[in-house]
Amino acid sequence: MKAAILAAYERIRSVVRETPLERSAALGGAFLKLEHLQHTGSFKFRGASHKMARLTPEEAAAGVIAASNGNHGLGVAAAAQARGVSAEVYVSAQVSPAKARRIQALGARILQAGEDPLTAEIAARRAADSSGKVFISPYNDADVIAGQGTIAVELCRQLPRIDAVFVAVGGGGLIAGIGSYLKAVSPATEIVGCWPANSPVMHACMTAGSIIDVPELPTLSESTAGGLEPGSITLELCRRVVDRAAFVSEAEIQAAMERVLLEEHWLIEGAAAVAVAAFLKDAGRYTEKNVAVVLCGRNVSPEVLRSVGLTLR
Q1: Please, are residues 89 and 48 in contact by the beta-carbon 8 Å criterion?
Q2: Which domain holds residue 70?
Q3: Which 3-state string (H, E, C) describes 82-127?
Q4: Which candidate in 55, 119, 168, 298 could, as Cys together with 274 as Cys, close a disulfide (CB 3.0–4.6 Å)?
Q5: CATH number of the domain within which 28 lies
Q6: Backbone conformation region of residue 312, classed left if phi is above 0, alpha if psi is from -120 to 50, else beta
Q7: Digit-coded pLDDT (tens) for 68-126
Q8: In a domain, 313, yes or no
Q9: Three-state secondary structure string covering the chain
Q10: Rounded to two decimals, what is the model's pTM?
Q11: Is 227 part of any domain?
């Protein structure tokens, strides 16, 4: 997959932001990949932009369909708007009204389907199949995964020796892309998958060796919550590249959000805090090693902000 990721990097480098890598002495000396500073506030813009770049003129003219309660929808809407492509984004009943409004503001049409993200995702794919439009999966798409993997291309240039990288895992597109590239160019790098203990869906599927229904509890890590689409290609990719799993509690996620805000003055979303919390929990084993932690996004819903004692006015 290395070649596909490098090709993706060349295709989208003019439209995505090369995000900084900064060392944080206050956060255990980790090197923070500031993907929360990416356009639309998360790494999802990379995968969406790459998928958009791969559309044929006929596919672009027909428009695209996606499913997302947040970051992927924002990424697809922005990438579609930039290319002049019409976009429909399916959301579930769980969507934050504020995030839905942001997706609409970028020109996408919002359609609600089902009570949970996986139901909306399945409905969106069916709609794409029946209409002939291209469905842009948040993770179950080789072009999207290659786009997310461009983060690793930047990382390797910014930090020549990477001993470990901590990445939050939802559907697995981010860690599949980053891990696939690093395993090709830096096989000694440890790929640490990070999950909220309340929603370890991909890890449970990896353990089972197949996509299964996994019970979940509410989590501050909204962006990693939800089940996997049947047949997702990310399952085998994650099994291949993830070296170690780390799990964090809701209290640890909230503490990481607060610590990053206090120490670095950055507001990050729960998914980004999952990776930070997982590193901080085990920082002692990485003394004098180069560790990268991916801050995957900053799009915190007002509902989550209120739950952790913050408000937006």
Answers
A1: no
A2: 45-136
A3: HHCCCEEEEECCCCCHHHHHHHHHCCCEEEECCCCHHHHHHHHHHH
A4: 168
A5: 3.40.50.1100
A6: beta
A7: 888 999 999 999 999 999 999 999 888 888 889 999 999 999 998 888 888 888 899 99
A8: no
A9: CHHHHHHHHHHHCCCCCCCCEEEEHHHCCEEEECHHHCHHHECHHHHHHHHHHCCCHHHHHHCEEEECCCHHHHHHHHHHHHHCCCEEEEECCCCCHHHHHHHHHCCCEEEECCCCHHHHHHHHHHHHHHHCCEEECCCCCHHHHHHHHHHHHHHHHHCCCCCEEEEECCCCHHHHHHHHHHHHHCCCCEEEEEEECCCCHHHHHHHHCCCCCCCCCCCCCHHHCCCCCCCCCHHHHHHHHCCEEEEECHHHHHHHHHHHHHHHCCCCCHHHHHHHHHHHHCHHHHCCCCEEEECCECCCCHHHHHHCCCCCC
A10: 0.94
A11: yes
Domain boundary, last residue among 117, 136, 155:
136
Reported as a single tens digit per residue, the pLDDT across 192-214 is: 999 999 999 999 999 999 999 99
